[in-house]
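Reviewer comment 2.1 asked that we show a complete input and output for one of the modelled complexes. We chose the flavin-adenine dinucleotide case, as it is the one discussed in the main text.
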Amino acid sequence: MVLDFRLPSEYEDLRKTVEEFAREEVAPVIGDYYERCEFPYPIVAKMGQMGLLGLPFPEEHGGMGGDYFALCVTLEELARVDSSVAITVEAATSLGAMPIYRFGTDEQKARWLPSLTSGEMLGAFGLTEPGSGSDAGALATTARLEGDEWVINGTKAFITNSGTDITGLVTVAAVTGTLPDGRKEISSIIVPSGTPGFTVSKKYSKVGWNASDTRELSFSDCRVPAANLLGERGRGFAQFLRTLDEGRVAIAALSVGLAQGCVDESVRYAHERETFGAKIGTYQAIQFKIAEMEARVHTARLAYYEAASRMLRGEPFKKQAAIAKLVSSEAAMDNARDATQIFGGYGFMNEYPVGRFYRDAKILEIGEGTSEVQKMLIARELGLR
Ligand SMILES: Cc1cc2nc3c(=O)[nH]c(=O)nc-3n(C[C@H](O)[C@H](O)[C@H](O)COP(=O)(O)OP(=O)(O)OC[C@H]3O[C@@H](n4cnc5c(N)ncnc54)[C@H](O)[C@@H]3O)c2cc1C
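Response of the prediction step:
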């Protein structure tokens, strides 16, 4: 057996293309979007033209015919420069389009996927509610079938990509009945933007990810056709568990990218900045900090590569995805703290990307399952219940 950790050439070519795009077209402008808390439409349009929003989807649906690992490699390179742009792609693909591709009917795929995979339209994933996040099964939004329509009532919190000018739909998880054993029957329903009774609030004021779109959504007697049910009735819980398992690998890749960006910036600055008559990179205190940062990125990257490879081979990957998400989000947070320290006062200024990395790192330990939830999942996989 040959153990080979090099990227196959098609992924390496993609990585280089995205690296160049991020360096040349995202890095020079994203700081201003971030400070203005503005969604970067021209960057998203360019990513659509490049096919980045269609990477893991077959060509028959307008995609690039790649796989989930191609998406992960892309997210890593984008987040190395900026996480708002990376999370916009992650949420659009992994959370927005993927559930439709995986669970949708032929009609739903034909209607939505070409626009979603081209980036002409963004989809959103509406699971979290003001009263239910980690305990997602406690959701309270309801959908009752009246004739040939679902009537939806409830509120969703923190939904990414849900209120942009190009958002086309949100997939809403809702209670659609009670199972014979008394548990909730949960289903997913596609709600197109602009449906009467569906209101999108103004953007949250956030600590980080300031150039990404996050909103609260409310549904008040919102009616959509019965045919908007995603997949089978009552399969909503299983669907979102699957979506989140995959999403964790993507968030791990995004975290590795942020952690790598911290190393890149720190090495560069350590060569430039002088104190006491010498470059700070000559001090062992700085060298050790950067060496630890590099070690964290390296180990976190191996963790997400392994989770992704199991996923692509069709093997169980729940534990590996949770481990990858846990260690890489912690690596991102630790590296962002260390990079900011290496930059001293300049690390606290918006002029340098490390301040942005610092603000963007924390959410990685929270979104798509907190670190505590990842530990619960890992323990459960070890038979501890
Ligand atoms: C910017 C942003 C974007 C997001 N985008 C989306 C999106 O697109 N779609 C979507 O559906 N959701 C989205 N979310 C929601 C996100 O997934 C949740 O915030 C996250 O899962 C945590 O849920 P919560 O905020 O309700 O925290 P809670 O579940 O209330 O947790 C609070 C604290 O308690 C801990 N905790 C909870 N239960 C346990 C336990 N049993 N044991 C130990 N500790 C526990 C948690 O780890 C956490 O530290 C987004 C959130 C943010 C901030």
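Residues 62 and 114 are 5 Å apart (CA to CA). We note this here for comparison with the apo prediction described in Section 3.2.
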